Amino acid sequence: MQSLEFLDLSGNNLTGKFPTSLGRLKNLKKLYVGWDYNSFEGGIPSELGSLSSLQLLDMRLCNLTGHISRSLGPLKNLHTLFLQLNHLKGKIPSELSGLASLKSLDLSINRLTGEIPESFSDLKNLSLINLFKNHFYGVIPKIIGELPHLEVLQVWENNFTFYLPESLGRNGKLKELDISTNHLAGLIPRDLCKGGRYHSDAELILRTNPR
């Protein structure tokens, strides 16, 4: 099994603690363990941080609890991290800034809190950020708008305040932005629509913020 590169455990009725022995699969590139029927006990095992070849980790909807493991930070080849629809709490660890290849990050529908880390500025390849339906607060940092490949930003149903970063939309690639049901105020960034940069097929949702 040491040569295994693809493992899909999703859509079963698996229970108990997540097997830490999966951390021995050094050649594993894609790991799917979530969706529907699986219901594991506990959190993300730190042993997954040793899967140096891992490119995709999908642990959505499998009853995860606890905090996002800092051990995921060294996964330099990881381009997709899906942890949505669980019961994760606490802050986003700054160690995730080590995910240099990350393109898609989905932490939505959990119990996460705190601010978006400034260390996200190191995630230059991010194109999708889903943080909606959590308890995040504070300002949406300007580094989010400076991500050169960002196409989707969904942060609705949180507690973000202050203003949208002026840099938002400046990359000319943003296609979907949903900031509804927060506590944001101020002006819509001019670069969001300037010169037709916001695509004709794009979606912009701003409702339920202060006037």
UniProtKB/TrEMBL annotation:
Which keywords label this protein?
Answer: Leucine-rich repeat, Repeat
> Entry's InterPro entries?
Leu-rich_rpt (IPR001611), Leu-rich_rpt_typical-subtyp (IPR003591), LRR_dom_sf (IPR032675), RLP29 (IPR053213)
A family per Pfam: LRR_8
Does this UniProt record's set of keywords contain Repeat? yes
- The keyword Repeat is annotated on this UniProt entry: yes
* Segments traversing the membrane: none
Which domain of life does the UniProt lineage start with? Eukaryota
Task: Write down what this protein is called.
Answer: LRR domain containing protein
Organism of derivation: Parasponia andersonii (Sponia andersonii)
